[in-house]
Structures are given as C-alpha cells and as structure tokens.
Amino acid sequence: MGAQVSKRACFDEAMTQMIADSYAQEYNRRGVWNKVGFLPVSVVRLERPFRGAAFVCLEPLMSGSYVKHNDNAGHIGTRDDTPQAFSHFTYEESNHLLVVCDIQGQGADLFTDPQIHSFDGKSFGLGNLGADGIRRFKRSHRCNSICRSLRLPSLQSTSSSGAGGAERRVEVV
C-alpha cells in the first residue's frame, strides 16, 4: 500500500506543478514585467525502493536563496508582489475554480512545489484544501500594483462561476 500511496503522491505533485506552470506561461503572456516559472518535475521509478518508496519526484537543484512567499493555509511570507499577483491571477483565469498557492522558490519568479486548491477539493493531492483553502487565500490577499495592471478584480466578496460560461455558483466567502 505504501508504494501505491507514494506513486500517487508523486504523480499528483508532478501534475500540480505542470498545471501551475501552464498558468505561469499564460500569466507571462499578459505583459507582466516580472515573468514567473516553475521548475520541471519528473516522476522516476526506482529499481530498488528507497525508504519504502518505489517512486520519487525529481527536479533540478535550485541555487540561491530559497523563499516561501505564501502557503496553502493563506499565510503570506514576503512582501513580494509577483507571487501574490500570480496566485490571484490563477483564481481569475480558472473562473474561480482553483488557486495556485504555496508559492516558494528562488527569489520572486522561479518557483517549485506549489499546491492547488480546487473548488471541490478533488485532485491535486493532500495539500488541496478545497473551498476552505480558496477562502483562506481570498481573506489574506491584498491586491497590489501587478493585480491592478492585470485588471484583476478585488477578491473581497466574489462568488465563483463554472468554466465554459455555464453558470455554477460555488460559495467561497
């Protein structure tokens, strides 16, 4: 059972990081002055399990200072505008269905190991706190100059609608 949990956790982590990077690419296309990106991650099957794990996630080594900008519980760790605006962007770009958070990495623009909160709390691994995680993010976020330049609406008292134009109300206040 432990190997299956490890395998699932590795694939969830890799999927989360790839989805976060796809949002980063769209964010960068919007003309922001501080581009962001996520390290590539690979899931590797070990010939001999290490500490019971048959699968591990690997990514390039980050050099330089490592910073945690925000976490999946709604806490903000730095005053850097870019990571906070990026998280806000993902919420708006996903039509309020998710938010990429737990932004950490090198400086304010190269990130690793994010978490994604989804409106239904499904997928994306154990760090997905669902609608509660989205609420926590919205409560702690304060729009900054990047949010305003991207014309992102204030997060105070917004409701969610589903993708594809179909009206779907999800209460996340």
Automatic annotation (TrEMBL):
Keywords, ordered alphabetically: ATP-binding, Kinase, Nucleotide-binding, Serine/threonine-protein kinase, Transferase
Q: Taxonomically, which superkingdom?
A: Eukaryota
User: What SMART domains does this protein map onto?
Assistant: Alpha_kinase (SM00811)
A molecular function (GO) term: protein serine/threonine kinase activity
Q: Alphabetically, which GO biological process terms does the record hold?
A: myosin II filament disassembly; response to differentiation-inducing factor 1
Q: Which residues form the Alpha-type protein kinase domain?
A: 1-155
Query: PANTHER family of this UniProt entry?
Result: EUKARYOTIC ELONGATION FACTOR 2 KINASE, EUKARYOTIC ELONGATION FACTOR 2 KINASE-RELATED
Q: What is this protein called?
A: Alpha-type protein kinase domain-containing protein
- What is the species listed in this Swiss-Prot or TrEMBL entry? Tetraselmis chuii
